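User: I'm putting together notes for a lab meeting next week and I want to include a structural view of one of the chains we've been expressing. I don't have a solved structure, so I'd like a prediction I can at least talk through. The sequence is below, exactly as it appears in our construct file.
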Amino acid sequence: MLWHLQNLAEHVGSYGFAFITRGHIHDSSIPGWVESEDSTKFFRKALDLDPLDVATKFEQWACARDRSNFDDCSVLS
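Assistant: Thanks for the context. Below is the predicted structure for the 77-residue chain, given as structure tokens.
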């Protein structure tokens, strides 16, 4: 999947990015992101944010959120 996203722009002209983080402070996974064709430059140029800052804030949000309230998951609504 990683290879497909990284080559998305080259093959079909689409851009994308995915931020992956741990969901609990005791998880051992390593946070990071994958992008196609430098698409995280969008954060720097359009939003004036560093992708590392976005990843850090995403991790803080994921570790601090209340998992007992599934209404937080607007994607599932």
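A couple of points you could mention at the meeting. The chain has one domain: 2-24+31-65. DSSP finds four helices and two strands in the chain.

User: Perfect, that's what I needed.
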